[in-house]
Amino acid sequence: MEQIDRSLVKRLQEGKMTRREFIVTAAAAGVSLSGIAGILASCAPTPTATAVPVAPKPAGTVAPPKPVVTDKLRMKLRSSFITEGNEVLKVVAQQWGKENGVSVEVDLAGMGDLQTIAGTAAETGAGPDIVEVFVNTPHVYAEKLADMSDVANELGAKFGGWYDLAKEACVPASGKWIGLPRFYAAHCIVYRADLFKQVGHDKPAETWDELLAIGKKLKEKKLPPLGFSLAHAVGDGSNFVYSMLWSFGGREVDKDGKTVVINSAETAKAIDFVRTLFQETMTPAVLQWTDAENNRAFVSGEVAVTNNASSIWWQARNVQSIVGAPKNAVDLFNGTQHALYPAGPAGRLLFTEMMSSIVFSYSKNVDAAKAFLRYLNDRPQMDPWVQANLTFCTPLLKGYEELPLMPWNSIPPLRPFKAAAQYGHLPGYPSTNGRAAGEAFNKWIVHDMFAKACTGTSTKDAIVWAEEQLKKIYK
Questions:
Q1: Residue ranges making up the domain that contains 317
Q2: Tens digits of per-residue pLDDT, 431-453?
Q3: Which residues of 98-111 are buried (b: 16+ CB within 10 A; e: fewer)?
């Protein structure tokens, strides 16, 4: 561990300084990112993550020429619910700017805001140089984006190749990379194992039918209910409704990417099941839940089950670690566990919450943006960011999966997240028509189909409505 004021480390260990405050202070004092990551890992509340030194730069490496930037490099990036990750990201960006003599402007935003920012930039031909966007969105703006093939191919060759999901999101029929896959937020079911035991279940549900049965028992005993967003929640809501549709065999479109097939018996079964799940096991508040609401509801003890990345566990850990934390906070953290999404009649299929970096062709700083993204996604910068994010932000490069530094390899409660990617898909599955799928996703068609069916619309009418909307897009 490199030299650092030991009083700072002691304050962190004693809980007198937050991890976020430590990152900012240490970075200002000149501590490297790998040094910060190692200290955070060694001082983490139990269970701790294993700190692993990043790969050193080869001796004799010739530094690339410094990029030329007009005015400043502006970027709109995804904000993590795990705030330590955001601080590392800011430090990385400013460090690159300092090393290259470039003024860097970094704004962090939520997924919904980023989708709006990207749409406005595409329409007006002006805006940030780099924007992080959700799932298939790069395809929606394909003709307006810079070619990222050189950076993507270089990183893929260096770190074991890209997952297929990454290619689906960023490579259209032309074969060129129109975006650079940045990360995915692995999702699981988050549940209170202590409450499950109170209704006779020592294990998580393997199927949706089992979870329905558990939810009914929780409600009968007047214990906290289930909660899955049925609103316009870009992350958690999308993960729920798309996963439900696919797990019951429903699809928006056929594999040809043209034929709308939402009007099927399988879709009807998915809708009927979700309606029953909503009526018999959930809190009605889910009809208005944003991506933050299920976190709040779980950590406050209002629900016993939801779907999420690792941010609920992280939040619960932080609350119970405060000196003098109430016993219910400690009990909640100790009872919080993760499990893979249950399987439906068609198997276990998951929506994958992933982000990609895009650079619009209007930018006068395309080369500088690519240089920054190459730097951002290299291990000396990626490793501490990954460690700080506790699987909330996971690279889409295969070489990372088995590294000891990955939190799911060192923190037992996070291990289920490791298997999530193998079941993952993007909107429009099983087609590869990313443009249409991205447009349909941005219009909330699948979300609204389920929400309508849970608020009075018949199954048939909800499906017919969705079919009409999808046919306007898939032509």
A1: 188-351+443-471
A2: 988 999 999 999 999 999 999 99
A3: eebebebebebbeb
